Every structure is written in C-alpha cells, then in structure tokens.
Amino acid sequence: MRLVADGVTEIDTMLGGWEHATAGFLVDGPAPVLVETGSQSSVPVLLDALGSLGIGPEDLAGVAVTHVHLDHAGGVGDVARAFPRATVYVHALGARHLVDPSRLVASAARVYGDLLDDLYGRLEPTDAARVRVLGDGETVELGGGRVLTAIDSPGHAKHHLGYHDSTSGVLFAGDAAGVRLPDGGPLRPAAPPPDFDLDLALGSLSRFAARRPAAIALAHYGIVPGTPEELLAEADAALRAWAGEAAAAYREGRDIAAALAERFASDADAADPAVRAKLETLNGFHSNAAGFRRWLETRQDAPEGPSSVPSHHEHGTDHERSDRVAAQQEQARPR
Ligand SMILES: [Zn+2]
C-alpha cells in the first residue's frame, strides 16, 4: 500500500502472488470509495489492506467497478458483503453480471479451465438493491466536494467505465488505456475478445484526454510516470500499431499471435522470465491476437458482435488452450 496522490492509496492485490500486477485504489473522503477490487482470490489481501488503512466494516461507502472482468471485479460480491453500507457502481452493461454472475463465471470456466479457481477465483452475486448504474458524466460523491466522475470508455470491453477524481486529478483507467507494468517494458494494448473494437478504444482515449487528468492510474499497474498526454499518445500509437500488424497477419494468413510477439516482444519482456509470465497472464499476445481476430472477423457485418457475455483475457500461460482456440478460429475463417 502506498499513497500515490492526494487521498489516493494504491493497494497491491497480489494477483497470482505477483507484486505490481493488479492494483485497487482507495479514494479517501468522508465517504471513501474503492476503485477496483481485484479478483476474488485477492480478497483476503485487499481486506487486510483496507483494515490497516482504518476502513472498518461500516466505513466503506462505495466500490467503483471499471468493468466486470474477473481480475478487476471478481472480488465485488465478497467485498460488498464485508462492507454492508457500500454501494457498488458499474456500467449499465455490466450490472446484471454482478447481480447474477452465473453466465459470466460459466464462460470464464470454459476459457480458463483449472486456472479459474487456481488464479482468479469466481464472483459472488451482489444484491441488486446495492448496485447503482452510472452513465457517462455521472458522479459518485465522496463528501467534502470530492467526486468521482464516470467516463464511458468502451473498446476493451463494452461495459467499461473510467473514473476521474476531482481532488487529485487522477483518472482511473481500468484496462482502457492498456497494460504497462513497472517492470515490464512498454505499454501494451489490451484487446481481448469478444468486445474489442479499435475505433471505440481510440475514442475512449480521446475522452480521457478531454478530461485533462493530472495523472492516469492503470489497473495493471499503478500511476504511470510522465504526463497523461504522453501516456495517451503512447496508448493510441500502440493500439494502431498492434491492430495494423494483426490486420496484416490476418490478411496474409499468418499466425496473429506470432506476428504480434515477433514485432512487439520487447527486450524488457524477454529479460526476465517472471515478468514475461506475468505479462502473458494479464495481457498476453494470444489474448490480444484472439481479440484482434474477432474484431477483424466481425466488424463489417456485425459490429455489435453476437455475444453479450463479457470476455475474459484468454489465458496466456495456457497456450495449449489458446492455440486450440486460435486453430479453431483459423479454420473457421473464410479465405
Ligand atoms: Zn479487462
């Protein structure tokens, strides 16, 4: 835990036992709000951290969900139970999955197999009466004039919100600006299936820039050094470069994951096998390749995509399964 901005404490949720992989943020005020819970497997670490920050069971006023992927929101049901006064804030398209997670969890189980329970855990339901949907521009009041403003930010997922803190100026970007680990090389886009959409993702970066934030905090991981303008420009360029590479590989019938890895695996990624494993698990080339492929396959005739179940980052450490999925998709692709 550390104070990273005025009244903003970063909590390392230690997903998979890794340091600096997945963060939650406690935003202080008379009515404090937790942004991102992390996975269900991280709940004990998170509750310990909140306890040592002096947040008792009656104290937490809100849990702000950026999106309902299990590494971000898997802990929501447990956290809501531990803090009975907390309201859970979420995008309209994510709310029903918090209330009834059965489809989301079943879908995750198909993608992850054993890793679902070994790494993430699941997602307990939250009473619908405690869930409040936020639209773009709506705010969460923390008291003393402090507000978090929700920013509709689709692209990574249809149901993604960023949150802009009025006091510190920090913008909590979830996964919408990509993944950049302190020890893990340059920023990578996060483009998982089935929702990824390039134009929406680029538009969300512009919406973030228009807020003129003082800093940007990524779920993976933390406040990024440098200016927000630099980060958002880097995220924009990375998205375009990765999508361009994926589209070229797709057109030419090459393996998209291999093409992305060949072009974008950095020296920093390669230097340390532990860092590489962490990055591949959170936001691997296979997951991105599957997301880009689905986007390429569906964007012309079915821009909405057929599935309404939120996706899961297809697991990078589970290459066998990823390869099988990729092979199936490859066979299904019209030539
Ligand atoms: Zn995500």
Question: What's this model, at a glance?
Answer:
It is built from 13 helices and 13 strands.
What does this structure look like?
This protein has 335 residues and is α/β, with parallel strands linked by helices. The protein has one domain: Ribonuclease Z/Hydroxyacylglutathione hydrolase-like (Metallo-beta-lactamase, Chain A, 4-Layer Sandwich), CATH 3.60.15.10. 40% of the residues lie in helices and 16% in strands. It is built from 13 helices and 13 strands. It has helices at residues 43-52, 70-73, 76-82, 95-99, 102-112, 115-120, 198-210, 228-251, 256-264, 267-271, 273-283, 285-298, 319-332, and strands at residues 2-5, 8-12, 23-27, 33-35, 62-64, 87-90, 131-133, 139-143, 146-152, 161-165, 170-172, 215-218, 222-223. The strands form 2 sheets. The chain has a 7-stranded mixed β-sheet with strand order 1-2-3-4-5-6-7. It has a 6-stranded mixed β-sheet with strand order 8-9-10-11-12-13. It is globular and about 55 Å long. The model is unreliable at 301-308 and 313-335 (pLDDT under 50). The site of zinc ion has 6 residues, from loops.
Defining key terms:
335 residues, Metallo-beta-lactamase, Chain A, 16% strand, 13 helices, binds zinc ion, 40% helix
What is the topology?
Blueprint: E1 2-5, E2 8-12, E3 23-27, E4 33-35, H1 43-52, E5 62-64, H2 70-73, H3 76-82, E6 87-90, H4 95-99, H5 102-112, H6 115-120, E7 131-133, E8 139-143, E9 146-152, E10 161-165, E11 170-172, H7 198-210, E12 215-218, E13 222-223, H8 228-251, H9 256-264, H10 267-271, H11 273-283, H12 285-298, H13 319-332
Parallel strand pairs: 4-5, 5-6, 6-7, 11-12
Antiparallel strand pairs: 1-2, 2-3, 3-4, 8-9, 9-10, 10-11, 12-13
Helix pairs in contact: 7-8, 8-9, 8-12, 9-12, 12-13
